[in-house]
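ARCHIVE CARD
CATEGORY: sequence design from structure
SOURCE FIELD: tokenized fold
FIELD CONTENT:
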């Protein structure tokens, strides 16, 4: 027990100095075999990155996850759901009308187009074409029916909540970076940072389309 605590303390110090490590680096720093480091990580609790082929590790108490269950550090992505495929499933199942690949790429900070195609081919996701792009939907029958109705109903409008797909992605990224922002604040940020003009009511419509108004940190406006 004393040895375990000592090893855990050494590991904690390494992660205090640097929040993310690869397993070989840890083995070298601790002078342990890789298999021993894996056992130690399992005992203290850890998350493995969903980006970079899962090569990065962080301790369970380090991430501060956003409302999507995601945490980014130095372009390394971690998820409460673990793997990239599980994360995609969770994000899409939680959506009101599904997501295009471009939105998912910005949300997850990784190019997941190939993974989305594979998941669709294996029946783990569904997709429909809307506004000249594929929108990925849940494979769950009940969720899928609801998403199809919402997505189809919005198909006759300007893409993604009465704004262009490109602007919609920018709006979602602003929200992901700081879910406490109101639609008015997001509108102002986009205008000041990128000279993008989008009305707060358009942003609210986008959020309602994707079910984001139900997130734990509600919009203030």
């Amino acid at each position: 027990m004393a040895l375990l605590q000592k090893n855990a303390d050494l590991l904690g110090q390494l992660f205090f100095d640097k929040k993310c490590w690869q397993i070989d680096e840890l083995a070298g720093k601790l002078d342990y075999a890789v298999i021993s480091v894996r056992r130690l990580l399992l005992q203290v609790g850890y998350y493995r990155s969903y980006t970079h082929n899962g090569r990065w590790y962080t301790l369970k108490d380090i991430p501060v996850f956003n409302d999507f269950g995601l945490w980014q550090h130095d372009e390394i992505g971690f998820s409460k759901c673990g793997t990239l495929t599980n994360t995609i499933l969770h994000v899409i199942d939680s959506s009101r009308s599904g997501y295009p690949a471009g939105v998912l790429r910005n949300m997850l900070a990784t190019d997941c187009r190939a993974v989305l195609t594979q998941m669709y081919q294996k029946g783990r996701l569904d997709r429909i074409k809307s506004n000249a792009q594929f929108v990925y939907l849940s494979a769950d029958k009940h969720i899928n029916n609801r998403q199809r109705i919402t997505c189809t109903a919005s198909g006759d409008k300007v893409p993604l909540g009465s704004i262009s797909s490109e602007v919609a992605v920018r709006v979602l990224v602003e929200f992901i970076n700081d879910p406490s922002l109101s639609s008015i604040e997001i509108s102002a940020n986009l205008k000041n940072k990128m000279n993008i003009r989008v009305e707060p009511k358009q942003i609210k419509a986008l959020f309602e389309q994707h079910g984001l108004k139900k997130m734990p940190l509600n919009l203030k406006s």
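CARD ANNOTATION: The chain has two domains: 2-65+72-79, 84-214. Strands lie at 21-22, 46-48, 56-59, 70-73, 76-79, 99-100, 125-130, 133-138.
SHELF: design records, drawer C
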